[in-house]
Amino acid sequence: MTRPILDLALIRQAQAKLQGLLHRTPLVHSQTLSEELGAKVYLKLECLQKTGSFKPRGAFHKLLSLSDEERRRGVVAVSGGNHAQGVAYAARQLGVSAVIAMPASTPRNYLDATRGYGADIVLLPDIKAAFAECTRLQVQGRVLVHPFDDPLVAAGQGTVGLEILEDLPGLTHAFISIGGGALIAGIATALKSLKPEVRITGVQTHGADAMARSLAAGRLIELPAITSIARTLGAPRVCDFTLNAVRELVDEVKVVGDDVTLAALFFLLERSKVLTEPAAACCLAAARLHRGQFQPSDRVVLVMCGGNVSVADLLAFRNQANDPSAERSVAVAAVGPGVASVSR
Fold this sequence. Notes:
Elements: H1 8-18, E1 27-30, H2 31-37, E2 40-45, H3 55-64, H4 68-73, E3 75-78, H5 82-94, E4 98-103, H6 108-116, E5 120-124, H7 127-139, E6 143-144, H8 151-167, E7 173-177, H9 182-194, E8 199-205, H10 210-217, H11 240-249, E9 252-256, H12 258-272, H13 278-288, E10 299-304, H14 311-321, E11 331-334, E12 340-343
Parallel strand pairs: 2-10, 3-4, 3-6, 4-5, 7-8, 7-10, 8-9
Antiparallel strand pairs: 1-2, 9-11, 11-12
Helix pairs in contact: 1-8, 3-5, 3-8, 5-6, 8-9, 9-11, 12-13
């Protein structure tokens, strides 16, 4: 089967297929953040999507693209959290068997939710072993729903970009977090196709920054371990497909620390009443690095990609944020392949 090309037509196809299956998440204006950043700031609340993240968009589009024979074989995925829930939910809604390979360190709330959506879980020692098990099950006949190395999945995620422009035609800046890269590949394709002048900033956290390191090295870099609290950004490596998309469409990639990410997470919770994951809150941390650079006429969107945080997580985050011995971070901006700068 010919691998599809990620373009605006594929994303519009995904939008049509997803009608009635998922929420059209709100885009809300934040007066507080607007005053702080000096521009009109909006939050795209994918944390209110089914399963608590954007992931079902890509999962549904992939599963809806399968033949009847492929659906009968069932699907397999690997995930440390949100992709697992997205695939499990979509598979249950479409009557498809799903097996998810997950690392043993996956938090209980992610495991419970994934099982609750009807998927079978295979626990492995770490994410590398989970990818290996996923490959084994694929060889046995199940169809792989890759978390990022699939244009069909990325097209589903790209529907977020279409919704943003429908609600905010005057968009000038978008901040989008990067794990494996399907979300930013999809959204950036949609935004740049319809409004090329939009400035797109990708965001990662230190210790979950495979994309930024690959950009700087000019080749794919695999992280030996994920050390950031942003677990849902924890792809050990990206892929040629998403790396090339970021090179071509993304204006800059910023890498921020866990400390400023946690500060942003608690600010969003306390002032905007939005519970986000570190993987989403890091977008606010990155936008704060632009303070003083925005114009009052700018329209800035922060994509809040997920909100699957437990009470136990919040307590642990608060303890970490209050730890005086915690390492303070710098932010690294990878601007195009092979070029990096550091700002405090």
